[in-house]
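PH (Pleckstrin Homology) domain-containing protein, pasting as requested.
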Amino acid sequence: MEFSTSRTRLFYRVLVVFVPVWLFVSPLVSWLLVDDGPPGPWWGQLLQAVITGGLVAAFVAFVTPGMRPTWVRTSTQGLSLSVSGGDPINPAWSEIAHACVYRRYLRWKLEVTPAHSGQAITADVSLLAPGPTHLRRELARRPA
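Structure tokens follow.
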């Protein structure tokens, strides 16, 4: 099964962060710098935040994944992954001691520990589609 960066997930994440920040900062800046009376109606501020947030989120969602794609593929032979646009790594299941998906703060991480000596590979899989929980299930079904 293939997991790749989801532009839709990225769009909604940026939008959910941007709109509240805009709603907080816009009246604050108006109050500190302009001070020409009360701000406009509440729905005007909300409309500005949603339109501006939507445009910024769309820009980020369509530009960012193309620059640094992350993808993971699971199969009966092993695991294939590319982190931040690097060269793909294709270890067989026999070469993997441990592979797990866990949550660290607001991000989901994939950690692959090699069976032989070596450094563990960690990848941010928060924005992968179909999602980190599906990837966790796929890893649980790996051959013994």
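Note for the archive: The CA atoms of residues 28 and 34 lie 10 Å apart.
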